[in-house]
Write a structure and sequence with these properties.
This is MFS transporter. InterPro entries: MFS, MFS_dom, MFS_trans_sf. It comes from Halovenus carboxidivorans. The chain is 79% helix and 0% strand. It is mostly helical and 407 residues long. The protein has one domain (2-195, 207-391): MFS general substrate transporter like domains (Growth Hormone, Chain: A, Up-down Bundle). The longest helix has 33 residues, at 45-77. It is globular. The protein starts with a helix and ends in a 16-residue tail after the last helix.
Length: 407
């Protein structure tokens, strides 16, 4: 039954990321269609960065404010899968509303941003709790988080090129497809079984977990910086590829896919590797290499070499991601995992917001080069600074707490 649940929950994680990333290759076109462009836009890069920044920020504000609440609610009630289904279906309603409302009535852009925020509130519930339910399964934390990472990577890998092509059919088409996918997995999620302890806990007690488990600050810090790079590529990378390398949304999607495909395919084997060799080496060495390859993307002189650099970014990112999520599982007990993973996603979403806002600000006011250097070197710094804290975590060498890898 674990394999079936793993597949179902992986499908939910895939769908949320697929829907999210569908929009990225054509964000400039979408915000114009939603009437977000200021008067006198005229293709100005600064204006594009500003308009796209607020559209992406609204969703991740919902992520930041509510990821922990979804997790605490699941820990308090002892139920996860009904909340996963509800989050997916409500997220689909949000995407559909974004597509339909501006075509039926005149909607101020502020209202669009509110809908985008509510869509983020819903989808982070489905995403975070699907991963949390994966944490509850048998078979090894690295294996289960590798499955989550594989789903994340596949969603982003497929979403980028597909989204780029869908924009060719119209700026609202990716929104309709995102809604349909989330409606489908919302129904599928009801098939998965809950593996919580079954004990309900007071909501306050669940939230207090984050204060007691201060060691969670280590994976939270890595999650923050790792998602910062994702937010950076979602907006600044997209605008850079289009304005400096001359790519259209379709080409941008393919170049983003050069990162996401190896990032997806290597998540599961690298997650299992971390079960065998421990978390320290994949997290620390992977983060160091990840930061350096991000800087290398900017200095790639042509589109093909930039594609090669993006592949290397994907490989090194895949080494870090599942091991970092597995650390959360290692450090949290079974009835604390919802709020622990919710906290991880809060920090990750804050990182994504920082990548969007900070990256756009540096790129707009200084240069793209400064923005790439800032983001890449942030990953290098966290790798160096956090090594003593990683080594100080009270974990067995395998990071498994005695779980059986063969199940």
């Amino acid at each position: 039954m674990s394999d079936t649940d793993r597949a179902v929950l992986g499908a939910v994680v895939f769908a949320v990321l697929f829907a999210q990333v569908l929009l990225y290759p054509g964000i400039p076109d979408l915000v114009v269609a939603l009437d977000a462009s200021p008067a006198g836009w005229n293709g100005d890069v600064g204006a594009i960065l500003s308009a796209g920044k607020w559209f992406l920020t609204a969703e991740f504000a919902g992520f930041v404010l509510c990821a922990g609440l979804w997790g605490a609610l699941s820990d308090a009630t002892g139920r996860r899968t009904p909340l996963v289904a509800a989050g997916a279906i409500l997220g689909g309603v949000g995407y559909l509303s974004l597509a339909v409302a501006p075509r039926v009535v005149t909607v101020p852009y502020e209202v669009v941003l509110v809908v985008r925020f509510l869509q983020g509130v819903a989808t982070i519930g489905a995403f975070s709790l699907a991963i949390t339910t994966l944490m509850d399964l048998d078979g090894g934390h690295g294996r289960n988080m590798g499955a989550a990472g594989l789903a994340i990577g596949l969603g982003t890998a497929v979403g980028s090129p597909v989204g780029g092509q869908l924009y060719g059919l119209g700026p609202f088409v990716p929104l309709y497809v995102a809604a349909a996918v989330l409606f489908a997995v919302g129904g599928l999620a009801t098939v998965a079984s809950d593996r919580t302890s079954g004990r309900s806990r007071r909501l306050r007690a669940a939230v207090e977990t984050l204060w007691r488990r201060r060691s969670l600050a280590v994976p939270f810090a890595f999650g923050f910086v790792d998602r910062l790079t994702a937010g950076f590529f979602a907006l600044v990378g997209t605008v850079y590829f289009q304005s400096e390398l001359g790519l259209d949304p379709g080409g941008t999607g393919l170049l983003l896919g050069a990162f996401f495909v190896p990032f997806a395919l290597l998540q599961y084997p690298f997650g299992r590797l971390s079960d065998r060799i421990g978390r320290v080496l994949p997290v620390a060495a992977g983060s160091l290499a990840y930061g350096l390859t991000i800087v290398g993307v900017f200095y790639a002189p042509t589109v093909p070499t930039a594609g090669v650099a993006m592949v290397l970014v994907g490989v090194t990112g895949a080494l870090v991601a599942p091991a970092t999520m597995a650390l959360v599982t290692d450090l949290a007990s079974g009835d604390e995992r919802g709020v622990a993973m919710g906290g991880f996603n809060v920090f990750g979403s804050l990182g994504f917001l920082t990548g969007i806002v900070g990256g756009a600000t540096v790129a707009g006011r200084v240069s793209f080069e400064a923005a790439f250097l800032a983001v890449g070197l942030a990953e290098v710094v966290i790798a160096v600074v956090a090594v003593p804290f990683l080594l100080g975590l009270d974990l067995p060498a395998s990071g498994l707490r005695g779980q059986d890898l063969t199940r």
